[in-house]
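## retry 2 of 3
previous attempt timed out at serialization; input unchanged, resubmitting
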Amino acid sequence: MLYDWIKAGHLIALIAWMAAMLYLPRLFVYHASLTPGPAASAQSETFKVMERRLLKAIMTPAMIATWIFGLTLSYLSGFYAAGWLQAKFVLVLILSGMHGAFARMVKDFAADRNTRSPRFYRVINEVPTVLMIVIVILAAVKPAFR
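## retry succeeded, writing output
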């Protein structure tokens, strides 16, 4: 019974984390698209608040909870030695690295140091999506690795 509650917590945290990981780069696209001027300055300040709050209030706590629940599940289930879970673990590490990169981008925007184009953020927005798809397939299908 406890295992099912932990799994539910893992899925809830994962959904929140992924929602933020998919939305934050979209905010970056809009933020990077602003043309200089007084109206853009006010919009930029609004984006800075949105980006910071999304990172601090949703994305980071959700990532931490995802890791805690996920590691607990791997221990309780005994799957930690399975190849599919080890592959998933590597991909989640990469996703966590993306999280860190996004946090750095939030800091760059907050300090008005962004040098990247909206196109860059459109492309980078796809990385968490691809990782999520492969991670979910590994968790749902549990393919055998030799």
